[in-house]
Amino acid sequence: MEPEPRGPLSQSAGGPAASAEAPKALYAERVRHFDAMVADKTSSVRLYIRLRLAAFAATIAGAWPIFQSGRGTAGWLFVAGGTLAFVILVARHRVARRRLRRVESMADFNREGIARIERRWSGLPAAPDLATREARAHDFADDLDVYGQASLLRLAGACGTGPGWKTLQSWLLAPADGDAIARRQEAVREMAGAYDFRDRLAAEARLMVDGRDVPGPEETATFGHPDAARDVEAFLAWAETDGWLSQRIWLRVAAFVLPAANLAAIVLYSLGMVPVPALAWPLLISSIVVAQGWKGIGGIFGEADDGESSVRRYAPLLGHVASAPLRSEYATGIRDRLGAGSRSAPREISALRRLLDLAQIRESPLFHLPVAVVLQWDVHVLAALERWKKRSGARVRDWLDAAGEAEALAALAALAADHPDWTFATIDTTADTIHARALGHPLLAADVCVRNDVQIGPAGSFLLVTGSNMSGKSTLLKAVGLNAALAQAGSPVCAESLTMPPLRVVTSMRVEDSLEDGVSYFMAGLRRLKHVVDAAESAIAPPVPDRDRGPPRRVLYLLDEVLQGTNSAERRIAARTVLRMLLTSGAIGAVTTHDLTLADAEDLVARAIPVHFTESVGQGERRLTFDYRLRDGIATSTNALKLLELVGLAGKAREQHE
After folding, report:
1. Does 382 score more than 70 pLDDT?
2. What percent of the chain stands above pLDDT 70?
3. How far apart are the C-alpha atoms of 410 and 320, rounded to whole Å?
4. Environment class of 330 (CB within 10 Å of its CB; exposed 0-12, middle 13-18, buried 19+)
5. What sign has the CA pseudo-torsion 273, 274, 279, 282?
6. What is the largest CA-CA distance in the chain?
7. Cα–Cα distances in Å, from 103 out to 210, 346, 514?
8. Is the pTM of this model over 0.90?
């Protein structure tokens, strides 16, 4: 059974839990609606299957007696009519299948909405993950569960395309400036109520998986194959460079002259007006020209054909975004970037798809070779592709970015729709303190999420969090850090209210040693603390030109059980040294510890704001209970021996103590 986030900061009164019932009921109703549509469209698909079989059988059965009666012309006309009917039915069947898969995806997306609210992680699609080293090197990604099974990215990650995931990750990992946050908040508020738009956006993205209109269930709602990003970059590199044919005028001239000569020779030879050499020579010259350009043109087609990256399959998704009934400044800006009219992004991507489909006849050599020789097919297709590239190639990257931003906004809007009791943070550039009322852990379900009022700051002070094992200290730090990251992405936050300055969140919580790198647990902790201190000190240093963007941000440091990998005396000295450096840097932060003497130093006592969690022993039971409520002052209780007793080790502990 997979792990689910449980633990502290989990309380709650009936308010938050009750507030989750309304969106769940709405999602359940939409699931029933889409399931009914699925049943109806499944019937349509089955009907087209039967009609295709009937058309095929009728064509064979009807043509046979006509041919038998000696009316060959009539027979061929009948076959042609039956074939046309069959082709039309095949096209209609494909459209019906796509509509069916779209509705199925919308039903699945609403089922996932219920799973998100319940924090039922097994019901959510996979999400991309950073390499372990990259995640650990980030300021907070590894410590705050941005990635992984029960993670922020999976909770917010209602994306289906590479650009969507990329944008959402960048927003969660890198704080935006105040104007960008305000514009995102406005767009997220508007999009939260646009259920139909978000459902269709998710469905169109998922229909692109593996470049197939009808992906299998195991492929639906994934973020694409491992090479998707590389394929997209290869396509963009082609789209943004100069044309290959522009430097080969002779090939373009030959492509216009030779087809006319070949067709004339074929017609004249068929009429018996010219001998064989008159037919052979133009075809031979055409074959030489085809051979000269074969490798180069093939390479260009390979660069232009984006393959699994599905750039050419963005037309329906871009069309949906371009027609979005949204009026926020951000949504309007996205629509403007996609353009309008005959040169809009959806139409241009549709044109690209048609051209690439024409290029793909190279995959059928028996058909391709005669057409390539007689008509110089490849040159004409490449010329059309390069005209498209000159017209629109430089805009594709921005189109994909716009689609990614629309998906990221929809993902944050899903958080707002799922959690009507969440709010949007106020980012105050003049503040030096975090004020949070009823702050909760975003990854916990409403019925277990305990919310607490939290204040961190002002600069020159730190929140000292104490308490026994499992009481909620680490979860409090994660709640603060995750909500700060959400706030600066433009997302709603798990709080009744949150006011904070622009922050750079830096953590030291999940420290691990490395046998491969020869780094001990203690040394890993020291390195992480140095990263925290360096970040805090850089926030007050003058910005470096061409490196630092925007004004320096105040650092929010979150330190969990500092330097556990050494003896108490040395740990205490080292931790106090780090705290003094952070306090003089102007950073604000919170520190958890079991060591109640950590802040006993005179200069730290005056700067520490002590709070704690506690537990109680149930009456008549050998178990601990926690209320996860934050209280003022230093903790006065411990529970290590009680926990030993709960896991059956108390007897051994008493023997060793005696």
Report:
1. yes
2. 82
3. 13
4. buried
5. negative
6. 117
7. 19, 21, 48
8. no
Instruction: Report the chain's mean pLDDT, rounded to a whole number.
Output: 82
Amino acid letter, residue 582: L
Query: What's the rounded Cα separation, in Å, for the pair 561 and 590?
Result: 11
Rank 134-143, 474-483, 629-638 by mean pLDDT and report only the highest: 474-483
pLDDT in tens, 405-461: 999 999 999 999 999 999 999 999 989 999 999 999 999 999 899 999 999 989 999
280 vs 372: CA distance, rounded Å: 15
CA–CA distance, 558 with 487 (Å, rounded to integer):
17
User: In whole angstroms, how far apart are CA 128 and each of 176, 257, 306, 403?
Assistant: 22, 52, 21, 18
Q: Bridge partners of 617?
A: 624
3-state DSSP call for residue 589?
Answer: strand
Asked if the model's pLDDT at residue 22 lies above 70, the reply is yes
In whole angstroms, give the CA distance from residue 576 to residue 603.
10
Instruction: Enumerate the β-bridge partners of residue 559.
Output: 508, 591
> 88-114 pLDDT, tens per residue?
999 999 999 999 999 999 999 999 999
Long-range contacts of 78-86 (CB under 8 A, 24+ apart): 82/55, 82/56, 82/58, 83/59, 85/55, 85/59, 86/52, 86/55, 86/56, 86/59
Residue 194 CB partners (closer than 8 Å, separation 6+): 324, 325, 326, 413
For residue 1, the tally of other CB atoms under 10 A from its CB is 4
Predicted confidence (pLDDT) per residue in 284-297, tens digit: 998 998 898 888 88
Which of 126, 128, 92 lies closest to 217 in space, CA to CA? 126
Pairing relationship of beta strands 588-593 and 554-560 according to DSSP bridges = parallel
**Helix extents (H) in 323-376:** 329-338, 345-359, 365-375
* Measured distance CA(144)–CA(151) in Å, rounded: 8
- Say what the alpha-carbon torsion angle 135, 141, 144, 150 is, to the nearest 10 degrees: -70
pLDDT of amino acid 644: 47
Percent of the chain with pLDDT over 90: 42
**Taking the C-alpha atoms of 534, 536, 540 and 541 in order, what is their torsion angle to the nearest 10 degrees?**
10
More confident residue, 73 or 410: 410
Closest CA to 407 of 614, 596, 171, 179: 171
Contacts of 311 (CB under 8 A, 6+ apart): 232, 235, 349, 352, 396, 400
Q: Kindly tell me the burial class for residue 650, based on how many C-beta atoms sit within 10 Å of its own C-beta (0-12, 13-18, 19 or more).
A: middle
CA distances from 446 to 53, 118, 422, 654 (A): 53, 8, 11, 40
